Amino acid sequence: MGTISLTIDGQGVEVQEGKTILQASREAGIVIPTICDHKDLNPYGACRMCVVEIEGVRGFPTSCTTPASDGMVVKTQSAELTTLRNRTLELMLSGHPNSCLVCVHREACEKYRPGATKAGRATRCGFCSNREECSLREMALRAGENELGLPTLYSAHNVERSDPFMDRDYNLCILCGRCWRICEKIHGKPAISIINRGKWARLGTAFHKSHVFSGCTFCGSCIDICPTGTLTDRFARWYGKPDDRNLSACTLCAEGCSLFALTKSRRLVATRMTSFQWEASLCALGRFALAQIVNAPERLIRPAVQEGEDQIPCDWDTALELAASELPRFTESLAIVVSESTTREDRFLYARLAERLGASLIVVPSSRNGVEKELQGFTADLEKGRFRAVISGGDFLSAELLKGLNFSVVIDCLPSSGARGAKVVLPAAVLSEVEGTWRNVSGEVKELPAVSLPPGQARPEWQIICQLAQKMGLEGFEFKSAREVTSLVGSDPAPRPFDGEPRRGLRQLPSRFRGHLAADWVRPLEAFGMPSTPLEEMTESSKEGFEILERREVVPNMYFIKIMAPQVAKFAKPGQFVILMARETSERSPFTLVDWNGAEGTISLIIEEVGRSSRELISLPVGARVAHVSGPLGMPLPMEKKGTVVLGGGCYGIGAIYPIARGLREAGNHVIVVIEASSSYLLFMEDELKTVSDELIIATKDGSRGTRGGVQEVFVNLVQRGVDVAMFVAVGCTFMMRMAAEATKPLGIPTLVALNPIMVDGTGMCGACRVSIEGRTRFACVDGPFFDAHGVDWDELFSRRSAYSREEIEAMPQMVDLNALIHPHGSGGGCGSSCSHR
Amino acid sequence: MTAMLTEQQFDRIFSNHSPTRDSLIPILQDVQDTMEYLSPEALEAVARYLNLSENDVYGVATFYAQFRFHPPGRHRLKVCLGTACHVRGSGLILEGVSRRLGVVPGETTEDGSFTLERVACFGSCALAPVVVLDDKVYGRMTTRKTQKIIEDTE
Ligand code: SF4
Ligand code: SF4
Ligand code: SF4
Ligand code: FES
Ligand code: FES
Questions:
Q1: Which of residues A74, A93, A111 is at a domain's end?
Q2: Domain tally for chain A?
């Protein structure tokens, strides 16, 4: 094929024949905005962002679908093109939550809240886990338009969370089609497609069935190519943008697929395909389970030695010395069992140790049946008394077997019932934590860099063996790094092939890792029929606790919940809160009372879904019981006559100011209620608030209703109008309250805010809710929640609120409900309410 | 009504069409003519015959208003989205009804009472917007009036 030359933006460009204008521009370093296009996909021409002008051609063709031709003169920038692109963007954004993009407080807000809030549905960028990497957002901000000419249409799809590993929020989908196109490109027959049409069009599977049954292999490509936050990796999503990416490989089966290890602050957050091609694809284990195994909260973090029936944690020296003093006694009656998923260096050193001690070495493959087969002969030997001591690099032997031996060392990363029978347990670094090399079934040697930090005191196995051998006085173990071992490994055998094709079928995944059942540590794998050890039944007491009488989602993420709690209802006063625990095992979380009825014995709350505890609460159906309700807590707000009071509420605070308004009005005040939301469709309780206020003023960040902006803008307007404000009370997110405080401070208007930092016990004991007011330490749970806004140390409050963010992310549930997976031939005909559209 | 056609019925339908993508719509039409709707099992068989992904077939089928994916309910509620009705707000009616019944067009309510459908034009444009319940035509409709006829029918 020859080359052609054309002119783009006055620049002469030579490209190969057959390239599109977009490709030609890219080669010349000219940037044309695109959304639906992707370098690994065929041109699609759906979004119309990439329009250009071509001399002699009428209209504005899309550059991604138009072939470049010889002598063409192309313009990629002009006033008309900008208008056209902005209009296209506006259209796309009208069907996509956009309030953060046009919000006047965006920059300040993002400074205080650098991470996204872990909300249910994304109703704005601040609630979207893709915020830092979103192409749509980037484009909108670059266009710099902060007026949207079109109304926002929120489609109100439910977030799809029933599949393993993926969360899908179609409220964010712009129908660019990248996801199904990449799926088709990689797998031939796509597991997803655009279904329905017009307003109802969305991505989905045939008959809404679960991805487990739609032909999806859980390669994750759709997630990785989606330009918006629609498709997400449930485990990785809230960690934010990874700060490093390294080429590595998966060692969970003999295939040894290459992958990119994505890390953030040296923690493995995800593993991904190295390119969008079938050859590079990963199975569900490599794409989703690997990071979860590495990050399992149960990981072994300290050495331990057996004393009587117990295993007592100890330091490395104690554990190694005990092992080093015992092991040499066994020589020929010692067996060393290691997994093939360890690095070549680790295995080389295990082999050298076996050789020096005269012990037998058994290498266990990671195949579904391999473990059992390989170990059959060995356990038979053990039972016959052939061996009297064992070093086991995984969960290979039962506690009984180990107890029957004279000595045993388990070197592993996860606890197991077998390890409980061992004399010494040593915590091992694994997978992305270990440097080394790995040979896969086709003989290729792959590099494994150490990209994440091992938990606690865990160490890589090469190091453990060297230290152990040196303590035994053996020579040939003086290595400072795994790299020094690599050249000695020589021609090791390739691992035995895995009996299945994990990348082609969910039913062919390797079920074990170092002898452990993978699904025990990564429970969603159970959805693929992988074996696991049954969990102890969660004892849900249905008779005790506080009954939920009413529950409805008033606006996206915001739930009205009425609970039977007579003791709270009897004593509640405006401004007080309760602490709830959905289950006995849940975290305790505070919620401001919205209403109560002493006679009925009921209390009402507005709960916003923002993280694990609130998700547990809002998931309880009517009739279920909340394990604990304690309250009323906190100092009530005094209901005194002051004159004109302004009450500002945002998010859940819209509900929280309702009883305060009612109380202050009854006390004879002129009550002005101001409520703010990002967009009009997020406003609620307007009718109720009208009945308890003299004036109700609305503010929205996108200007879709009322004043554009927040409570603070309305407040300034009121003061300019000459309203003499005696007191201002603000309840909402910390950012909103801070903004309100900053608006009232210069005017010297007394301002109260309800501080809602993390509370644990709610009695002033734990100190978790410490806040600084005018330099003095106070406890929000007993001294608050209301404090003088002008005395609050806001910076400290923001840093305290973010102190728990990593734990909060880790607490996000990963489990799936196996009964909720929609089966192809499941419930027969009508899917009715189980459909995602409501 | 069956959830599946017999092998002979399928063979008869397939024998009239070549196994290429172009035959997809005509085959789906034939299947629906025979069994009144398109069941998951039937779509699976069609996808297999054409060597396509079921999801792809479902995507194409849901693009067209004429296909149903559930056995028809006891009542069929059709909302006209023809030009005349559309400009007079039938889109809003469809949306309201869809919300009220908890189904999207083409689906049947869980209790099997209503199937919601959208149609292109009834030829009763003078009465726009038009809603047809079973065989009765209701003209100059609003969301509220439509809700009312649903309640009366229930
Ligand atoms: S995870 Fe892979 S196979 Fe599954 S839908 Fe996405 S791209 Fe397709
Ligand atoms: S889910 Fe993502 S990739 Fe797929 S169409 Fe929607 S925005 Fe595009
Ligand atoms: S097939 Fe799966 S388990 Fe095996 S190496 Fe590849 S990603 Fe890992
Ligand atoms: S990038 Fe060309 S139309 Fe989307
Ligand atoms: S919640 Fe523990 S001291 Fe306040």
A1: A111
A2: 4
Total number of domains in chain B: 2
Residues with CB under 6 A from ligand 4: A 34-37, 45-50, 62, 64
A782 pLDDT band, cuts 50/70/90, is low
Regarding whether B32 and B12 lie in a shared domain, the answer is yes
- Chosen for mutation from B44, B54, B81, B116 (greatest number of chain A CBs closer than 10 Å) is B54
C-alpha–C-alpha distance, residues A376 and A499, integer Å? 18
C-alpha span between A37 and A543 (Å, rounded)? 56
The residue with tokens 């390239």 is A19
**A32 CB less than 6 Å from ligand 5?**
no
Query: CA A138, A140, A141 angle in degrees (round to 5)?
Result: 65
Instruction: Say how far apart CA B126 and CA B60 lie, in whole Å.
Output: 32
Residue A352 placed within a domain: yes
| A27-78 pLDDT per residue, tens | 999 999 999 999 899 999 888 999 999 999 988 999 999 999 999 999 999 9
- pLDDT tens figures, A556-603: 888 999 998 888 888 888 888 888 888 877 777 888 888 998 888 899
Distance linking the first and last C-alpha atoms of chain A = 53
| Position B108 in a domain | yes
CA angle A655, A661, A665 (to 5 degrees): 160
pLDDT tens for each residue of A468-516: 999 999 999 999 999 999 999 988 888 888 888 889 888 889 889 999 9
Same domain, A666 and A793: yes
> Hey, what are A95's tokens?
């069907």
DSSP letters, B130-144, are -EEETTEEE-S--HH
Distance CA B43, CA B57 (A): 7
Q: How far is CA B21 from CA A197, A491, A752, B67, in A?
A: 20, 51, 67, 17
Is there a domain that residue A63 lies in?
yes
Contact B108 A829 (CB under 8 A): yes
> Quick check: is A62 in a domain?
yes
Residue A148 has pLDDT above 70, yes or no: no
**CB atoms A835 and B104 under 8 Å:** yes
Dist. CA A757–CA A768, nearest whole Å: 8
In a domain? residue B68: no
Tell me, in angstroms, the distance from the centre of ligand 4 to residue B118's CA.
31
Instruction: For residue A11, give the CATH number of its domain.
Output: 3.10.20.740
Please name the amino acid found at residue A82: T
| Structural domain range at position B50 | 7-63
Q: Do B107 and A196 touch (CB under 8 A)?
A: no
- Å from CA of A169 to ligand 2 middle: 10
**Domain span including residue A791:** 644-803
Among candidate residues B63, B91, B107, the one where a domain is terminated: B63
Asked if the structure places residue B69 within a domain, the reply is: no
